Amino acid sequence: MFAGSPALNQSGPTEFVFRVFTAVPEFQILLFLLFLLLYLMILCGNTAIIWVVCTHSFLRTPMYFFLSNLSFVEIVYTTVVVPLMLSNILGAQKPIPLVGCGAQMFFFVTLGSTDCFLLAVMAYDRYVAICHPLHYTFVMTQKLCVQMVASALGLALFLSLQLTSLILTLPFCGHHREINHFLCDVPPVLRLACADIRVHQAVLYVVGILVLTVPFLLICVSYVFITCAILRIRSAEGRHLAFSTCSSHLTVVLLQYGCCSLVYLRPRSNTSEDEDRQIALVYTFVTPLLNPLIYTLRNKDVKAALRNAIIGKAASDTC
């Protein structure tokens, strides 16, 4: 329907620009410093988890193996988005070519999907540990753990490649199209296409169901069995310990799946571009930041490992 408009000439390479958060210089500086601080905290927190898991032999268990992989994904996930976002907060809008936008979209969807799959894998690990403790070491072998992480990444890569390649075939009208977002996410880019996008929307919903709904249902089923097993524990201390090992994971699950579902599974008629951008800030900054905090503050083993590492470092410095 846009074909006849001279203002929407499609000659030349397609480029996108991101909508600015604010045009007020003082607010731009404040936002830049705030997001930079959050990004550095995400890097430090998740790197600390990876470090303590790799350097402490008593943390080399399937649960902490999955946790360290989740932390690594969170680091790369935010790094795909935040540096470009920070560069666009200060100064003039910098156009990003279609290929660059597609690359960011591909890695963002891949890593976000891997994140969701890993949370489902961690739920299965907790199910085996609590419901079948005697068989845990025989079931959750190192080989199986590596295969589960590789499968999560492989499935995420496959789905992301299909979705991204399909979207990049769309025509985008004009040389510079403004994305009402701070990254090349699928929904805001789809809104800029000057073609029928019903098939693309359907594919997006299918991918959303495979990445969000199916793993979340598996997590819910796992926690039904986990809850039943915990309630059969006779000692109050045993029940508290079992619940505490699951509560951290469940908190991250509700944040990640809840926010992503609001963006990717809501009907388009009920969505707002500004709301999507605000919700995206949660799973881009808040969830990766809370992930190490939640697991550190609610996990005795990780707290003990961090404490020992800090004391050991301080002791070596004084010597």
From TrEMBL:
Membrane topology: Multi-pass membrane protein
Domain G-protein coupled receptors family 1 profile: 45-295
Annotated PROSITE patterns: G_PROTEIN_RECEP_F1_1, G_PROTEIN_RECEP_F1_2
Membrane-spanning intervals of the chain: 29-52, 64-86, 106-124, 144-168, 202-229
Matching SUPFAM superfamilies: Family A G protein-coupled receptor-like (SSF81321)
UniProtKB keywords: Cell membrane, G-protein coupled receptor, Membrane, Olfaction, Receptor, Sensory transduction, Transducer, Transmembrane, Transmembrane helix
Chief place where the protein resides: membrane
CDD domains recorded: 7tmA_OR10A-like (cd15225)
Subcellular location: Cell membrane
Gene3D superfamilies, alphabetized: Rhodopsin 7-helix transmembrane proteins
Record-linked InterPro entries: GPCR_Rhodpsn (IPR000276), GPCR_Rhodpsn_7TM (IPR017452), Olfact_rcpt (IPR000725)
Protein family per UniProt: Belongs to the G-protein coupled receptor 1 family.
Biological role stated in the UniProt entry: Putative odorant or sperm cell receptor.
Protein name: Olfactory receptor
Provenance organism: Ceratotherium simum simum (Southern white rhinoceros)
